[in-house]
């Protein structure tokens, strides 16, 4: 399948970068049969087109002291959606937040140190936000897979 953004070689490069964002241009070049410069140009092209948004590090939150991971479905008054989403996004406990289909719903992932901190977050940081009409939460018991990018 051909895309306007990438070909099969780009697909291999992206998949290798998803596995290891620190792989060298030389190693990538060997895997795809191109020169180091050609691989560097392809990566720069993918970045410029927005296919690769950024390179980052994935931190194991549990080993960093964030032992409790919870997801929230937060319903919001439609006129307050942007304001509420930005307010929550600014909170350091919020790992990610998305607008979902449905009646002005936000899907939020929160990481905190312990259950006391989760209770504090819910009572002091979440319930105090004007415009929220409903909150549902689920605590993660075990992680089987976490998105670090996706394979093409």
How does this model look, in words?
The chain has 152 residues and is α+β, with helices and mostly antiparallel strands. It folds into two domains: 41 residues, Arc Repressor Mutant, subunit A (Orthogonal Bundle), CATH 1.10.10.10; 72 residues, Lrp/AsnC effector binding domain/regulation of amino acid metabolism (RAM) domain (Alpha-Beta Plaits, 2-Layer Sandwich). It has a four-stranded antiparallel β-sheet. A hairpin with a 4-residue loop joins strand 2 and strand 3. The termini are close together.
Annotation, overall tally of beta strands: 4
Estimated share of beta-strand residues: 15-25%
- Overall tally of structural domains: 2
Helical content stands at 25-40%
Distance between the termini: 11 Å
User: Structural class of the secondary elements?
Assistant: alpha+beta
Keyword list:
152 residues, alpha+beta, Arc Repressor Mutant, subunit A, Alpha-Beta Plaits, four-stranded antiparallel beta sheet, 5 helices, 4 strands, 21% strand, elongated, Tscrpt_reg_HTH_AsnC-type_CS, sequence-specific DNA binding, DNA-binding
Outline of the structure:
The protein is α+β, with helices and mostly antiparallel strands and 152 residues long.
What's the topology here?
Layout: H1 8-19, H2 25-32, H3 36-48, E1 68-76, H4 81-89, E2 94-100, E3 105-112, H5 115-126, E4 132-139
Antiparallel strand pairs: 1-3, 1-4, 2-3
């Amino acid at each position: 399948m051909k895309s306007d953004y990438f070909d099969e070689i780009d697909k291999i490069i992206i998949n290798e970068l998803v596995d290891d964002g620190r792989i060298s241009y030389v190693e990538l070049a060997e895997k795809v049969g191109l020169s180091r410069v050609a691989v560097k140009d392809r990566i720069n092209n993918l970045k410029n087109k927005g296919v690769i948004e950024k390179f980052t590090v994935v931190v194991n939150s549990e080993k960093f002291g964030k032992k409790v991971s919870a997801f929230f479905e937060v319903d919001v008054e439609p006129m307050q959606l942007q304001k509420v989403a930005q307010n929550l996004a600014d909170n350091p406990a919020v790992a990610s937040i998305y607008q979902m289909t449905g009646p002005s719903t936000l899907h939020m992932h929160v990481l905190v140190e312990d259950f006391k901190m989760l209770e504090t977050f819910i009572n002091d940081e979440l319930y105090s936000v004007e415009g929220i009409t409903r909150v549902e939460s689920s605590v993660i018991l075990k992680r089987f897979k976490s998105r670090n990018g996706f394979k093409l």
